[in-house]
Design brief:
It is built from eleven helices and twelve strands. The protein has two domains: 138 residues, Rossmann fold, CATH 3.40.50; 153 residues, Glycogen Phosphorylase B (Rossmann fold). Helix 1 crosses helix 11 and helix 5 crosses helix 8. It is an alpha/beta fold.
Length: 320
C-alpha cells in the first residue's frame, strides 16, 4: 500500500460500528475518507434481497458514493455490507473489502471478514476471528489521554479505579438493585485500598445512575452522561490502575482491555445475554479480564488490540 492508496471507511450511526472501522483505519497509518452512511426504509430488508446495491441507503448517501472508486473499503455491521459490495461491483471488482462482523450474504465476495468469536463460527478462507471489537484506543491515543487528564485527577489518592458503567439493552434491564450493588462494592474496593473511583456513566445507564452514585462512599470523581464539559471516558481508562466495567457492551469491555491494567467485568446473569457471556469467557480465557469479585487486583495484564491484529492480517493477505 502506498500513500496514494484510496481508502474509504463506511461509518453509520451505530457508535460501536464506527469505533471499529475508525480504529482499523487509523492503525493503517494512511489517509482515509469517511463516508457517512444513512439508511432508508429498504435497509430493513435482508441482505440476501439487497445484494450488491445501494437500495438501502438514503439519497444523500448515494450522492457521495461516486468514482473514482477506492482501492480499499473498510466497513462494519450487516447494513453496510450491500453498500461495500455495490462499491466493489461498480469498481469492476478492483475495490477490496474488509468487513467487520458477519455480513450474512455473499461471503466469498469479501476480501477479509473479521468475525468476533462470540458471534459463532464463520467458515471460509477469507475469515479471521477476533476476541473482542477493534477500537480507536491505540497505545498512542491512551498516552495522550493520560497526559491530558492526569493533572485533573492527580489529587485523588491511588490506586485509582475506573468504574465504567453501561446500562440496559434491548433484551436486558440494568436495574436499580444492580446499580446499587455495583456502586457499593466498587466503592468498598477503592476505600479498602485507600484509593479512589473514576466514574463514568453512559446514555444507556439512564435513571439508575442516581442510585449507583448514591452508593459510592470513597474519594471519587463522577462524570454522569449529559454533564457539561468534556467526557473523561478515555482519560479515566488511561489513568486507571484498575478497571471495573459493566459487561453489557462489547466495545466498552474491549477498550478497557486495551489499557494493560487489570479489568473486572460486572456481569450479573439477568443483565447479560448468552452472546455477551461467551464474549466474557473468551476474555477470561485470554487473561484480558476477570469476573468482578470486589477484591482489588493490581499489576500488568495482557493488552487486547484487535485493530492492530486486523491490520497485520490485511498485510499478510496483500490487501494493503
Amino acid at each position: 500500500m502506498t500513500d496514494e492508496t484510496m481508502i474509504w471507511v463506511l461509518a453509520d450511526e451505530r457508535a460501536g460500528n464506527r469505533a471499529q472501522v475508525l480504529g482499523v483505519a487509523a492503525r493503517l497509518g494512511r489517509t482515509f475518507t469517511v463516508k457517512e452512511i444513512a439508511y432508508g426504509a429498504w435497509a430493513r430488508l435482508p441482505n440476501s434481497f439487497l445484494g450488491a446495491s445501494l437500495m438501502g441507503v438514503s439519497t444523500k448517501t448515494r450522492e457521495q458514493l461516486n468514482p473514482p472508486w477506492p482501492d480499499l473499503v473498510i466497513a462494519a455491521g450487516r447494513r453496510t455490507a450491500p453498500v461495500a459490495l455495490a462499491i466493489k461491483r461498480k469498481s469492476g471488482g478492483r475495490s477490496r473489502i474488509v468487513q467487520i462482523m458477519n455480513p450474512g450474504v455473499a461471503l466469498p465476495a469479501f476480501d477479509l471478514i473479521v468475525s468476533p468469536a462470540h458471534d459463532g463460527p464463520v467458515s471460509g478462507g477469507n475469515v479471521m476471528t477476533v476476541s473482542g471489537a477493534p477500537h480507536e484506543l491505540s497505545p498512542e491515543t491512551l498516552a495522550a489521554a493520560r497526559d491530558h487528564w492526569m493533572p485533573s485527577i492527580a489529587a485523588l489518592p491511588a490506586p485509582r479505579i475506573a468504574l465504567i458503567v453501561g446500562g440496559g439493552t434491548r433484551r436486558r434491564r440494568f436495574t436499580e438493585s444492580m446499580a446499587e450493588e455495583l456502586g457499593g462494592r466498587a466503592s468498598a474496593m477503592a476505600r479498602d485500598a485507600g484509593g479512589a473511583l473514576l466514574v463514568t456513566t453512559s446514555r444507556r445507564t439512564g435513571v439508575v445512575a442516581s442510585p449507583l452514585i448514591a452508593a459510592i462512599d470513597c474519594p471519587n470523581t463522577v462524570y454522569r452522561w449529559g454533564d457539561t464539559g468534556e467526557n473523561p471516558y478515555r482519560g479515566f481508562l488511561a489513568c486507571a490502575d484498575a478497571i471495573v466495567v459493566t459487561g453489557d457492551s462489547v466495545s466498552m469491555c474491549s477498550e478497557a482491555c486495551a489499557t494493560g491494567v487489570p479489568v473486572q467485568i460486572f456481569a450479573p446473569r439477568d443483565l447479560i445475554t448468552d452472546k455477551h457471556a461467551r464474549f466474557h469467557a473468551n476474555l477470561y480465557e485470554g487473561g484480558y479480564a476477570m469476573p468482578f469479585s470486589g477484591e482489588l487486583q493490581l499489576g500488568e495484564s495482557p493488552v487486547l488490540d484487535d485493530a492492530s491484529a486486523v491490520v497485520r492480517e490485511m498485510q499478510a493477505r496483500g490487501l494493503v
